[in-house]
Write a structure and sequence with these properties.
alpha/beta; Rossmann fold; 8-stranded mixed sheet; 11 helices; globular
Length: about 280
């Protein structure tokens, strides 16, 4: 079993490599890591192409949802994107927050930060910035953000409880998050759970859905809503790198499910209006 420090270094190394890969390679694998599939084109990613603010140069095909679609971002909002990669979700958030808003992208990997800054420079955005840092210790002042978004990143972090504590800290009272992530129902085979590529590939680092939702509630968030849920099917030509034919059959016929979920929750404030995704405030 790797230590938390070893897992973080694994993620840093893998995502430094992934930053240099093309989008097609990333989409046909699990979050860009390990054995690309010829069976399907997009294993985890959702289609951003019709979303306002989308920039193809910033889309590395590493997400598992569209958190900004559900994030209820308003003009003038301060938005933090955890695990910002090449900047894709930041630029979509910026389209919603407008010129009067501010977007801060946080990423663990220097190569990703450099790529995102280059993209922001090309686009001429002066209200989008990128900071290198660990999302277990977000380099942002407390009570800063109106909205926090993240796309398929918390599953890479060893201590997810610390991340939710940090999200609570950086959100303003009454602020909220919308996060897309990978969760499990049932147990993964040990050969997948212990594979470095499958950890960096957003799968073996995922935790049970029930535990994930409990962490959100335990850290003080309210009005939690699952905005979207979809099954993730790992094709045989990726599984064969870790399991034999009999093990693949047992895995596929077992009770383990891998899902992408998009979750919304609020940091409470006394006497604040209750806002619901797509509903409004009252």
């Amino acid at each position: 079993m790797k230590t938390e420090a070893e897992i973080k270094e694994l993620v840093r190394q893998k995502y430094s490599e992934i930053a240099l890969q093309d989008k097609t390679t990333n989409e046909s694998s699990c979050c860009g890591a390990g054995g690309c599939s010829t069976e399907v084109y997009n294993i985890m990613t959702d289609d951003y192409s019709n979303v306002e603010g989308y920039n193809p140069d910033a889309d590395l095909g590493l997400g598992c949802g569209l958190p900004t679609q559900f994030a209820v971002i308003k003009k003038g909002d301060v938005v933090i994107d955890l695990g910002s990669g090449a900047g894709n979700d930041c630029f979509v958030a910026r389209a919603e927050a407008g010129e009067s808003g501010k977007v801060i992208g946080i990423d663990f990997t220097e190569a990703m930060i450099n790529k995102a800054r280059e993209n922001a420079e090309k686009l001429g955005f002066n209200n989008v910035e990128f900071r290198q840092g660990d999302i277990e210790n977000i380099p942002v002042t407390s009570n800063t953000a109106d909205v926090v978004v993240s796309n398929c990143v918390l599953n890479l972090v060893p201590n997810k409880n610390n991340v939710f504590k940090e999200i609570f800290r950086v959100l303003k009272p009454g602020g909220h998050f919308s996060i897309s992530d990978v969760v499990l129902l049932g147990s993964l085979p040990d050969k997948i759970r212990n594979a470095a590529e499958m950890y960096a590939g957003c799968v073996s680092g995922a935790i049970q859905k029930e535990t994930y939702l409990e962490l959100i509630e335990l850290n003080g968030f309210k009005n939690m809503t699952i905005q979207k849920e979809k099954a993730i099917i790992i094709p045989d030509d990726i599984l064969i790198n870790y399991l034999n034919v009999e093990e693949i059959a047992a895995f596929k016929s077992g009770n383990t499910g891998i899902y992408s979920i998009s979750v919304y929750a609020q940091k409470p404030i006394e006497n604040a209006p209750v806002c619901t995704p797509g509903g409004g405030c009252c």
